[in-house]
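Proteins fold reproducibly. Take a tokenised chain:

. . .
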Amino acid sequence: MDINEIKAIATTEYERWLLNTMGDDEAQKQLEALGGNQEEVLDSFYTHLSFGTSGMRGLMGLGTNRINGYVVRRATQGVANYLNKRYSAPSVVISYDSRKNSEFYAKETAAVLHGNGIKTYLFPEITPVSVLSYSISYLKCHMGIMVTASHNSKDYNGYKVYNKYGYQIVGHEPDLILDEIESLDYFDGINYDPSGVITVNNKVGKSFVKQIVSMTTKLEHDTLNDLKVIYTPLNGAGRKYVKDVFKGIGFENYDIVKVQEYPDEKFSTCPAPNPERILAYDQAFKYLDSEGGDIIIATDPDSDRIGTAIYHDGMRTLLTGNQLGILILDYLCHMRPPEAGQIMVNSIVSSPLAGKIARDNGLRVVNTLTGFKYIGEIISDLKSENDENKYYYGFEESNGYLISPFICDKDGVSGVMITLEMAAYHKSHGKDMIDRLNELYDKYGVCVDKTRNYFFNGAEGADKMNRIMAYFRDEVNDSIGGLKIVDKIDYNENTGLPKADVIQFDLEKGSTLIIRPSGTESKLKIYSFEATDITPVEKDIISIIEKFKGL
């Protein structure tokens, strides 16, 4: 289909929305304003917002390729149809974060589910996604839905779907739900009843906190409180739960960044509330400079991921997700040595250094595709075999960690707890986390990890990404940037893992390169694990990408 055909489809759908939203004054106002910008009409209507293993995520606005009430209601009707075909009395629990429209979308989701005869629970306030995961089991629900766009900027929102085991849907389930959604129109066949939705009792959150407090490594009170923490929830859902855990373990020596303590749908002081990015810590560093402290810990808006930053040798230093994951593993192995047969699970884009440390401590290493849902699936399988104690620790490079299989998803709240305990332990031995990381490099070898993102927006973006992936898959075989390719793994082939659009290059001198499209945004992600300088490789990759971007 050429671009003119795509434009014609978008225009026709735009006109259909104008006709079918008559009576919705706000929708009409937005659509009429949109009509003056043909590029925006094209991007808003050229396709349907994708629904997959990460649910839906996109810019808010009117259109089939945007997050809005019509898209949310249609998707939820599809979910309801799927559930009612499979269960005699299905139930669902819903939560939401601090983003603009999150509460509205959550209530619309609840109304559609209840309108379809499904027992529906709704949290009464912003709630971490890990609490949602916990509540699915606690309330014995068949599914959970979280309204969030995680770490994306303020203009985004999303809709994550969790199965009855508490991890995001995988395998055939997303396709089966998508089939139900695609059979529906945006404007008819939507059952809706906002009455009778059950408010989640606060006992769920209290039980969640109690479980986390039980995981503490039980440092002495004075050792723990000798560390000064600056904590920021980045205007998200973590504040209440993190504070309760601090109280539960007897930790008092912390300050919260005031301008980021409470919800702010505009994310005024952190336009990109992503704990993987140093800019997200600007306000926290200002607070640290004025109030003093040892370490900054941040949770993202839905509080399933954490990040940490410090001053090291006078420089602002952000630990990567891999570095923090390695340090947590190292600390856990010291404080609670692994038992025979236990496993560490990490994604294929996690640092190889983690595997070296795990095996050195007697752990078996299990690799998964990217996405914590695959780690959750392993935990669920272990639970079904009454063997969950085999799970020791799991993490992914994008700052997601789980130190106990009490849920089947990553958790920022327990991540904050174990990070502050680890930092306090190292401080009591006269060093910070970077000092300890350098000791690990001395023992196991240096492995510098980097992640680069290349964005491709608009109707032609997906096609360009597909062409770039095809080029790396078909044309890059012997060398890249002057370095010989020792091994090439295409995860679209049989590797023992589910097939995925991921390519890995193992280079001479011990470095590794992994390329994949993002599952949630229009971008290519390129990961490198560098044992030596690979600057020529970086330049070669940029040249290839720019060539396709310019087409």
Summary: The longest strand covers residues 448-455. The chain has three domains: 68-201, 207-444, 448-549. The chain has a mean pLDDT of 94. The chain is about 40% helix and 20% strand.
